[in-house]
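Running co-folding for iron/sulfur cluster.
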Amino acid sequence: MTSKVEWKPLPTEAVKVAIIGSGPAGLSAASRAGQLGLSHVLLEKTDHLSDTIFKYQKGKRVLATPDRLDLRSDCRFAEGAREYILGNWDDDANTNKVYAVKQAEVTEVTGQKGAFEIKTSKGVVKAENIVLAIGTQGNPNRMRCPGNDLPHIIYTVDDPEDFKDKHITVVGSGDAGIENALGVAEEALENTVTILNRSKDFARAKAKNVSDMMEAGENGFMSIRTETQPKAVEPGWLTLETPTGEEKIQCDVIVARLGSVAPRGFVEAMGIEFTGPDREAFPKLSPTFESTVPGIFVIGALAGYPLIKHCMNQGYDVVEFINGNTGLTPADEKDLAAIFANLPQKISVSEWLEFFRQRVRIFSEVSPLQMREFMLDSKATHYRTGEIVFEKDEPGSSLFAIADGHAVVEIGGGATVKIEQGSIFGEVGLISGRKRGATIRAGEDSIFIEVSRTAALKLMAGVPGAKRVIERISLERQLLQIFRGGLTVEDLQPVVDQAQVERVSAGKVVLTEGEQGDDVYVIRSGSMVVEKDIGGKPIFLRYLPAGSFFGEMGVLSGQPRNATVKAAVGSELIKLTGESFRKMLAAKPKVREATEAAVAERAQMNSFIEARKANYSSAVDMYSDTASFIMKEGLGEATDALLIDENLCVGCDNCEKACADSHEGLSRLDREAGKTFAHLHVPTSCRHCEHPHCMADCPPNVIHRGPDGEVFMEPGCIGCGNCMRNCPYGVIRMEAAPPEKPSLIRWLLTGFGPGPGEPSPKWTKKKLGEEKPKKIAVKCDMCKGIADGPACVRACPTGAAIRVSPEEFLSIARLEEDAD
Amino acid sequence: MASLFSSLFGARRRSKATQTERVRERRHEGFLRYANFRWAKISGGLCLLIIVSYALIDVTPRHNGGSWYGYTLGTLGAGLILWLTALGYRKRKMTSDYWSLKAWTSAHVYLGLSLMVIGTWHTGFQLGWNVHTLAWALMMLVILSGLYGIIVYATLPQALSNNRDEMTQMQMLEAIRAFDRQLHAAAQPLTPQDTAPVLKALDEDPFAGGIGARLSGRYPRCATAAALHALAGRERATPRRARRWSGCSRRNRRRSDGCASISGSARCSKSGFMCMCR
Ligand SMILES: Cc1cc2nc3c(=O)[nH]c(=O)nc-3n(C[C@H](O)[C@H](O)[C@H](O)COP(=O)(O)OP(=O)(O)OC[C@H]3O[C@@H](n4cnc5c(N)ncnc54)[C@H](O)[C@@H]3O)c2cc1C
Ligand code: HEM
Ligand code: SF4
Ligand code: SF4
Ligand code: SF4
């Protein structure tokens, strides 16, 4: 694709506004400036517009979500193929008289509002205002040796088949480097491939990639050189620094995969502040997108708005603001109005926003801009006295804030607890993704704001004050739920004040059997396994899901730890000091009693297993080994996983076929793939994690937890693939639904066409012809909406396939049955 | 009978939010043991009923397929056969109403076995060289084949699992290809005379040999065995055990960023299987 844009030289005069980055945000801003006749310049690093979208796969369908949002831009944008959209934008840039400069990478910004100096790779530009729209991609790290500016050094490999019969050296041995090297090392391409690694081992890459690479090395498809670095680049040759001295090798292409720097450092160097230190933090912005440096405006993905439509609207708005248009109503005004439409009072959108900001504690530090943004992902609802907001055991991960009125929690036994206006509830689902712990009703006619999990997480990342409040309240509530017996928030103050959050990685030992210690831990996220050394072998005693506590025996008895507790998956713990905990127990004898009862129950179970171990050693060992296997497979964070008993499975693959036929013709499980222990097989299929990694970064926010605990995608996926990359278990496919198959009867009688299950890619291709349907994320939705449950389980003729949670599967009853 | 069906309801968990019921199983339970041998009991009871009633009911002149009793059993048997055949359809038709294929298989097996009694008692033991007896014999053959199926279902899965050793079909095929490449490379320095059997072995379709060979596991004309035999003694030329070929699509990768690349497929572009290389 060549760019049709009429590129210009760097302007010599100072401009009113310089726009850095020509993605949808920057381009839309420049177009508005062009339309308004504002003196401007659009500075783009590459030689084409909109590099992020330019880099999408060829033919990718770009989606225009959210549907409800109107586009307000001088550039066209609707769902369509990448090429079509980029082509339109090139034309739009010309018709809107955009003054665009290519290959002008901005490296430094100095000066202040009215007189900024922007240093680019082509020279310096002067501007009164700056719109920063550089997206979040960042820059690849460059090579540093002499000759590092030669054109045969490339930083990405679009298609390995572009390289045939070449001497290729890959520098950098992270995953990207290894994958590129394996790609170009394909036998048929006849390339001579070398991969360089500065150190001895390949610690930064996935084990799988490393073993693939080693094998390719052994088979002579590439040469792997460790402790070797490039020393000098010349056309056709590369000088290496090896442990045994210098060496010159033939080299036509260098692929440099040295990681990339996120743009944050560059942005901060301009003096722009971020909302916090976390990776998810964004620049602090005013309602007009102005950063903490007056005159520098930040929009688009960098400002935290990854959807193209948002980017384009902001580009338009920001230039209007800079041009002095203060009366502009945001494009989302009507959507917000719709959200507030069914509230009893009739006041304007901005009045509502202000009302909420003032009345709800977690919103107090939120800027009006952020407030708008996340009200779009929220619901404001009026509840009548006594109306149920949600019921106990219902799944749900949203957070509720009380803007008006109050809520009552039913804590069992007819007792209720009041939650005041300004506070929040439902935060447990937010943090642990588990079911609702109690039923909540409106205590009087009230207005509650329901904030989606993603919006709430964004809020916590963006507003440190909100994060503090939510975390404190959640901890208090969690402790109140765990330690019953008339405990109040006040009793908990000292405990909560001294509490610390600890992150532990999978497999990390938190408590060691036999050691002294009296700290008590509450599992905020993730899960733990409890093991005890019996007869010189660690025996699995118990699985502790999020929301449980451990370490209490130490406080109560003062004895050393009687079992080892380690993290089953990466987890977050809340550590309560033994001292504050003991004081609390002393003040509340009832809580002490309840805790002691729980301890007694656990102790009884431990001794049960110990007793069994003496008599039925092999059954206990088997139980324990199975548990370790399950935990090793990461099922410690599963809520519902597919487990196949290979004593029963005949390999008919009816499970996969049923899955495909119950959904849009695509199977969401891979039976064969995955690990097996003692004939227990964990196939590749979604585990509906307690804290779904896949949810972490979905631009249109379409991944949710459903009523049966399933993690599913609602329509609206834009096919970005983030979830697929984020899921550690490889269960998400990016795939387009195949066309409708002929009926089953026809296939049974005639044998023509594809039978049950996913049709072959060949058939699909033939059927579709030229048409390229859009690929979206597909994964198991636990057969959502199908009353009788997951198709894979129901369609298994032998009973080999079941879906269970680890708690259910590893229950003590299992051990009893096995031992009997 | 109440207790027979109780687990059908006991195991269900009701979700308040959807008002749907979902069967949850905590453990693996094979189709033979399904619901505590419910269908074995039902089928056994049915057989007993037939045998006892056969003895008690007096049919004149004697029990035969044409009597009212014979017709009753015949109709029952024919209906049952139709229902047994319907399994092939049920297995492949994913509808969202309540059913479990495990329950169907369980019922299929036990009720199918009861056909031995139903069919045979239906004849009144009047077997001769006629088309009726042919039909009976064919039915018995089908039932025996079913029994063989049960033996296979009971014994093969463990072997399948052990032999597979966590590999997928695609990985196995890829491994064969890798062996072929290695053998090819290893044969380079040999004399033409020694190379010939190796090449012959490489040319051979690993799945050749027909049904007889596959069922018996004996491959008398196996070129690989012949090559091993021919080369044995000349040199201890057994290739070192190749390491497992771990990535399905290693060599099939289209995009350098891996199949995991942004909008690439999680399935390998060539094999169509879930990409394991990530
Ligand atoms: C695979 C994929 C699929 C997606 N699909 C969709 C979709 O279907 N629908 C949707 O709405 N969103 C989608 N998104 C999200 C969307 O593409 C981005 O969020 C959007 O492009 C961000 O726009 P932007 O203008 O903020 O920044 P970008 O589009 O990232 O543009 C930034 C521009 O700035 C330039 N630049 C960077 N640094 C400098 C510098 N120092 N000097 C000069 N120029 C610089 C870059 O070269 C680039 O051209 C997808 C994202 C990905 C990764
Ligand atoms: C006349 C009697 C029978 C008839 C007509 C019959 C018919 C069928 C049919 C049509 C199928 C489906 C095959 C497919 O499409 O996959 C099947 C499967 C099967 N039958 Fe029978 N059958 C009979 C008796 C039996 C008996 C007596 C047994 C056991 C003792 C048995 C065991 C099985 C098994 C194990 C399967 C495979 C189930 C599965 O994996 O889905 N059958 N039978
Ligand atoms: S897709 Fe992956 S991360 Fe998401 S819930 Fe399923 S297994 Fe967990
Ligand atoms: S690919 Fe995944 S993360 Fe991206 S939009 Fe679709 S569901 Fe969300
Ligand atoms: S349906 Fe059951 S028996 Fe068939 S492959 Fe799947 S798990 Fe195995």
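Result summary
Residues 131-164 of chain B form the longest helix (34 residues).
Chain B touches chain A through 75 residues (CB under 8 Å).
Job closed.
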